[in-house]
Amino acid sequence: MTLKSVLVAVGPGDADRAEEIAEAAVEVAKPADATVYLAHVFTDDEYQDVLDQLEFDTELSQVSPDDTAQRHATIRSLRDVLGEHDIDYEIRGAVGAHGETIVDLATETDADRVIVGGRKRSPTGKAVFGSTAQHVMLNSPCPVTFVREQ
């Protein structure tokens, strides 16, 4: 199967593992010359917090999730790595429940692979992934690469 598009989905907890996520994206996308969709998924509360932190004046202009994602530090880090490797990318922002929204984005972008991050777990916790990663792995329309925290 030739990869044409890869969805790299990040959220608020992924800043610490952005380098590992970027490496996984390069490893998958570069040989296939695939387009990478960098997506930052926010819950409603997270989205409002980010708008406040980035000092968007939401009363003067309509701010889209795509605009917000483009200014987010994790997306900028990923974008820089992909640019260094000459990998085509598009930036997407979305608001909703993390797992469901990532699956929806995978469908919308016709992704051939999804890359998501996750936290390190205790030995007992290793039997079950976090709810977001688990939802994505069970419901994604394509294979999922899980990048765990080091």
TrEMBL record:
UspA domain span: 4-148
Highest taxon, organism lineage: Archaea
InterPro entries xref list: Rossmann-like_a/b/a_fold, Universal_stress_UspA, UspA
Transmembrane segments: none
Pfam (any one): Usp
Family assignment from sequence similarity: Belongs to the universal stress protein A family.
Protein name: Nucleotide-binding protein, UspA family
Organism per entry: Natranaeroarchaeum sulfidigenes
Lineage: Archaea, Methanobacteriati, Methanobacteriota, Stenosarchaea group, Halobacteria
